[in-house]
Design a protein that fits this description.
The complex is a heterodimer. By secondary structure, chain A is mainly α. Chain A folds into 2 domains: 41 residues, no CATH class; 110 residues, no CATH class. Chain A contains 7 helices and no strands. The longest helix of chain A is centred in the C-terminal third of the chain and has 28 residues. Chain A starts with 15 loop residues before the first helix and ends with a helix. Chain B has a domain of 30 residues. Chain B is built from 3 helices and no strands. In chain B, α1 crosses α2 and α1 packs parallel to α3. The longest helix of chain B has 20 residues. Classes of the chains: A mainly alpha, B mainly alpha. At the A-B interface, α1, α3, α5 and α7 of A face α1 and α3 of B.
């Protein structure tokens, strides 16, 4: 299914962006299905994820002093800052593939975890665990880049 | 007593599904006492919001 073929049905949609994103969403799902068929999709591949998360917490479950979340200021100010989006982008790229993919499907594409798990044929619980890890990593990465840039 | 690591699990979860009454209560209690987790909670919400700005209009939330 391509954008050209779908052109006829565009008239009724609310906007061009919605339309393009709708297609993009299916493109990504198609790609995932193909990968799964070829056995490349391994949602549980990066087990040392756990290490990256443990670096933020002490054994007791409290934040490590050097990893305690700091204020990022007003969300609006961040969204209007080009620097913020550059950091966001760089941190997305730095995420392990499976974490980046699942985060994109959930937060950028707006799929529900139920939809994601149906596509990937994994348990929903697994999805939540992966998203939790992805968010913790992303927040640590963005915090570093965003607050550093802020100070300079 | 819930620790920060477990609290972040609930903060993440609430971006993906509604929390149960028990989960909401434990999270709220923890957040009342823990400034670092309040920041983390804001950050997860901000990440969610960032995705919505970046992404499609037709997300999983029903129109108001």
């Amino acid at each position: 299914m391509s954008a050209i073929e779908k052109n006829d049905s565009f008239a009724g949609r609310s906007g061009y962006e919605t339309w393009v994103f709708g297609i993009l969403k299916y493109k990504i799902l198609d790609a995932m299905r193909a990968q799964k068929r070829h056995g490349q999709w391994q949602p549980l591949a990066d087990e040392n994820d756990e290490e990256a998360i443990d670096r933020q917490f002490q054994q007791s479950g409290h934040w490590r002093p050097d990893a305690r979340p700091q204020s990022w200021g007003e969300p609006e100010a961040a969204f209007e800052s080009e620097h913020f989006w550059r950091v966001f982008d760089a941190c997305m790229i730095a995420l392990p593939d499976s974490a980046a993919r699942i985060f994109s499907l959930r937060e950028l594409m707006g799929l529900s975890t139920e939809e994601i798990c149906r596509e990937l044929e994994i348990k929903e619980n697994n999805c939540w665990v992966m998203l939790h890890r992805a968010r913790l990593k992303l927040r640590a990465c963005i915090e570093q880049g965003w607050l550093e840039g802020d100070a300079s | 007593m819930m620790m920060c690591k477990e609290a972040t699990r609930l903060m993440s979860l609430r971006q993906d599904r509604p929390l149960s009454f028990q989960e909401r209560l434990s999270l709220r209690l923890h957040l009342a006492m823990c400034g670092a987790c309040r920041e983390c909670n804001r950050q997860f919400t901000l990440l969610h919001e960032a995705g919505r700005r970046f992404g499609p209009e037709d997300s999983d939330e029903p129109p108001a």
